[in-house]
Amino acid sequence: MKGDKPTVTPMMAQYLEIKALYPDALLFYRMGDFYEMFFDDAVAAAEALDIALTKRGKHDGADIPMCGVPHHAAEGYFLTLIRKGFRVAVCEQLESPAEAKKRGYKAVVKRDVVRLVTPGTLTEDSLLDARRHNFLAAFSVVRDEAALAWADISTGALHVMPMAPVRLGPELARLAPSELLVAEGAEADVNAVADDMGVSVTSVSRGSFDSVSAEKRVSSLFKASSLEAFGTFGRAEAGALGAIVDYLEITQKGKLPLLQPPVREATHGVMQIDAATRRNLELTASLSGGRAGSLLETIDRTVTASGARLLERRLSSPSLSLEAVGRRLDSVSYMTEQRGVAADVRDSLRKVPDLDRALSRLSLDRGGPRDLAAVRNGLGQAGELATREFGNLPADLATARQALEGHDKLLDLLEDALIAEPPLLARDGGFIAPGFDVELDESRELRDEGRGVIAGMQTQYSEQTGIAALKIKHNNVLGYFIETTAKHADVMMSPPLSETFIHRQTTANQVRFTTVELSEMETKILNAGNRALEIEKRLYDNLKGAILERSSQVATASKALAEFDLASALAELAIADNWTRPEVNDSRDFAIEGGRHPVVEAALRKVGDPFVANDCDLSGGDAASIWLLTGPNMAGKSTFLRQNALIALLAQMGSFVPADSARIGLVSQLFSRVGASDDLARGRSTFMVEMVETAAILNQADDRALVILDEIGRGTATYDGLSIAWATLEHLHDVNKSRALFATHYHEMTQLASKMAGVDNATVTVREWEGEVIFLHEVTQGAADRSYGVQVAQLAGLPVAVVERARVVLDALEKGEREGKAQKALIDDLPLFAATPAPMPASPSGPSPLQQKLGDVHPDSLTPREALSLIYELKEMSEK
Predict the structure, then answer these.
(1) Would the pLDDT of 1 be above 60?
(2) Whose CB among 80, 193, 538, 592 lies 3.0–4.6 Å from 169's, allowing a Cys bridge?
(3) Superfamily of domain 578-796
(4) Where are the domains of the chain?
(5) Any binding-site annotation on 134?
(6) Known binder of ligand: residue 632?
(7) Is 637 annotated in some ligand binding site?
């Protein structure tokens, strides 16, 4: 039948047209106060956001799935969708419905996508961690060249680094970007690496990476004739930078963020740390994935967002420049010595907002009055710091102090213009201070005093008519009107009052009038409110423009504040936790006295337990220097290994270290192979993961590397494992010539100390008492003769029968080995389990006399003499 075929409504046609341009994103289609989604987008979004899926109309005879979210709460939904791997295209109304009707009764409101929300392009505070960067990275390969560029559009940072393609994994681990751009067709080359790091991969057209057009694109952004104005960049570097700029133009729909000129990082300017080592050492995230329990969380005493981000950058990228390390340590030393100054600095810094992200939002037109106030407050604290008496500041802090000066003109403007606590949105108005703009003050006065004016008119009309019950009221339909009872209406509708009062409406009990004067006043009052808001919006744009004109100076001031924050934070850490300034030099020394693990020590401090400090000396001159560490599990071998790696890392980031003293020759590479894990998704067993990580170390470590290895070869048969561990140690000694700590349970390897000049035996000491093992956590020279595995198993709570059986088997195996028996013969000689499980040892019927005696003792009430007598008495009882 004719007319049965459904037609596509104009609105749905518009939706489908826009959606076709963004097939890989969820289209948030603005309809009034909601963002609506339709078809497959609605199904996917409803499931991801756990919201109701409904329907709206039909398409091709089928119901159209639909869901929606309030526009004022959209940011929270964006974050949920981004974390679940979606991209969001935000489609806004570009005109009001009233404006659309002017084009025709059935005209559809103009809409278009104003922004693509992706993991690497977030700017809102609610979507970001204030204490971490949110990097968008781009990986470019041009023949044999490769480069990685990265930007944080929320702070304006832009960097690029040439590198070998094999370095992609370690650099992604260092930067932890949210999103990685690659050329179409290259996804397969990076997906595995990116998945390991939890990085979202986005493919863009190859044209985005074209080095020629990329150079023009980047140069144009910074209004320079060529990239040479910022340094010398290779083709791959230019391509990576250009891809980022192109992607930002696409996702931000032409509103580019306020990026700083590109900074080229040296390939060998920072300590090389691979992904496995970062994970094993728990530098910025614990093995469970959160910040809690990481080194970063333990040492972070910063009080500003920019300072926290600077700390993470320095911790992730320890420097190889002796000059830079020395300058940073000088800054921390100054703050530890000038404690009063440091306390005052930190008090000021606590009032500093996030200048970088406020600037970014203003540049993208996503800011508001509070961002203007953030710049005002930040520059205010900068000016206060700049005028302090610091004395003789070290180089880095002196440079930072200079950057805090020279903002008086902008600061005065913002202080004069803004109220103390502005609203979030410019459209709310009320953020410009009284007295700043005469025209605004006049409009506000009329708007705010309109009620008084209307009350005066009501009194005037009441006197004029002689009607005491006359009232002036207001509603959204009629506006202002004069209301009286029907009883008095005849008077107002009769001459001469009828010439002044104009009848408007009659209700059941009331009659309503207006006057020319009242209508004119209503227009003035309404216009005054709108006029005031328009003036404030204009002033907001002016203030924003004034800030953006000095954006580079404001960004530099933010960096300077971060420098003061980090120096004072590390000083507070050093004072509170008794850390000391390390000596970092160009030798191959590695001498630590009284070293401690910062995270473990902090955890023990919370429960009131002390940390046992230990020395470590790997100063081997030009030769390898390796400590072969033996001892039982749970004795602290892994802690000792990790703490020395962390001390080296902390020293080269420019921090004091948890030790009595530390002398460290620059460490070029830090490698760690500790713990057991598998990678079943990629078909790797625990032993295979261990071997892959060990291979990476042996193939890359140089004579400036620091290597920590724990339990190499334990994931396979005994002799296979021993042979692999043995050969690994020999390679480290003879080929890599690295400084290394090598922990093992293969006691046979301790013989290597007598065969290799650079190998020394060390052990973690324990004591045995009544069949139990006591861990002393002290590292001393020498070799352990046992692993105490059975005792540790007993501590873990294995059933007594299992522990006792293990002792029997261990004694038999050790006796057979001493007597030279073959392994099969040893096993044949082992007594078999009984047919029934071994009986559990009988539980004591009650406390022993010794326990009873101790139970009656109250230590706090004993005198020294009584305590000494009690000790003699207890000793006598124990010997009976």
Answers:
(1) no
(2) 193
(3) P-loop containing nucleotide triphosphate hydrolases (3.40.50.300)
(4) 10-117, 125-267, 300-407+550-576, 438-538, 578-796, 800-829, 849-878
(5) no
(6) yes
(7) yes
